[in-house]
Amino acid sequence: MLILDIMLPEVDGLEICRTVRGQNSQIPILMLTAKSSELDRVLGLELGADDYMTKPFSTLELVARVKALLRRARISEEPARELKVVVFKDLSIDTENRRLFIRDKEVELTPKEFDLLHHFVTNPGRVFSRMQLLDKVWGYSYEGYHHTVNSHINRLRTKIENDPQEPQYILTRWGVGYEFATLE
Length: 184
Hints:
Layout: E1 2-4, H1 13-23, E2 29-33, H2 38-46, E3 51-54, H3 59-77, E4 85-88, E5 91-94, E6 99-102, E7 105-107, H4 111-121, H5 130-138, H6 146-160, E8 170-173, E9 177-180
Parallel strand pairs: 1-2, 2-3
Antiparallel strand pairs: 4-5, 5-6, 6-7, 8-9
Helix pairs in contact: 2-6, 4-5, 4-6, 5-6
């Protein structure tokens, strides 16, 4: 796991995050920084961080978030208990090896993007609010982190949808939340 501050002496944490994410899509990354604007948080998540906390912070919350990120990383190494490959339209999701293929071409996902996609495909047709997704996929509920869900869904859509503006997989249910299209 990698815990990064944005304001580091020689190279900023965002650049390190982008570099690490480009080389390893599986390592959990937590941004822990004094930069607390919504733009900073969204940028950190867009560049590949799995979570973002601002200073000052609660040690208990930091420990809980680290445990949650490590738990999800460990789960990714365990054999899948359900279907090993889920196929839907052009997507093939290898749940055992945490790999995604679109028309037989592998697409790199961050651990959180894969967790989000996996949650959706194992619950097709079910609508989830942002709070439910925070609880189920991130392992915590916190009202101020709705943008985290939106940011990850937008990134995931750019990777899996032919046209992210007209999604066919992850659908928005206005005023309610998001759902994965029904597997047929």
